[in-house]
Amino acid sequence: MNAALEVAGLRKSYGETEVLRGVDFSVAPGECFGMLGPNGAGKTTTVKMMTGLIRPTSGRISILGRPLGDKEARRRVGFLPEQFQFHEWLRADEFLDFHGSLYGMSKDERRARIPEVLELVGLSGRVSSRLDTFSKGMLQRIGLAQALLADPHLVFL
């Protein structure tokens, strides 16, 4: 695999309005990549296409060497949306256990991994706390723990 993420000739139109034209870039494994630009430049639209939330009008996106939408590649991707809304009635461990099951992780994998990611994001002391008691910063950290839970090869933040 040469690129963790590859975008080629990406284009998006809504009717007659073209919002992206000819976007090309690649991200190597282990590389951190960020998109900067003014409001309306297409950053959010590009991320939504890379995560499969909207379809490109044309162009190609490959993730971990596989085409966009490939189930095997999707299993190896973590995602923390910009506007997250969590199940605040759940405890931290319940929230992560639920998301681990959505990732297809076994019960044993979840049992081993949940304490690791809570430690990684500095929330190991809050394992039994309900999310509705978390500050905004703590919610961002539990969101990051959720994105990292399945030990992804690519993370979208």
Structural notes for this entry:
There is one protein chain. This protein is of the alpha+beta class. 32% of the residues lie in helices and 22% in strands. It contains 5 helices and 6 strands, in the order ββαββαβαααβ. The chain has helices at residues 43-50, 71-74, 92-102, 107-120, 136-148; strands at 5-14, 17-27, 58-63, 66-67, 77-79, 154-156. The strands form 2 sheets. A 4-stranded antiparallel sheet has the order 2-1-3-4. A two-stranded parallel sheet has the order 5-6. A hairpin with a 2-residue loop joins strand 1 (5-14) and strand 2. Helix 4 packs across helix 5 (136-148). The chain is globular. The chain starts with a strand and ends with a strand. The relative contact order is 0.16. The mean pLDDT is 92.
Brief account:
This protein has 157 residues and is an alpha+beta fold.
Which secondary-structure class do the elements indicate? alpha+beta
Number of strands: 6
Termini separation (Å)?
A: 22 Å
- Provide the low-confidence segments as ranges: none
Global Rg:
17 Å
Amount of beta strand: 15-25%
Global geometry = globular
Order of helices and strands: EEHEEHEHHHE
**Strands side by side in the biggest sheet:** 2-1-3-4
Give helix % range: 25-40%
The biggest beta sheet reads:
4 strands, antiparallel
Mean pLDDT: 92
Please count the helical segments.
5
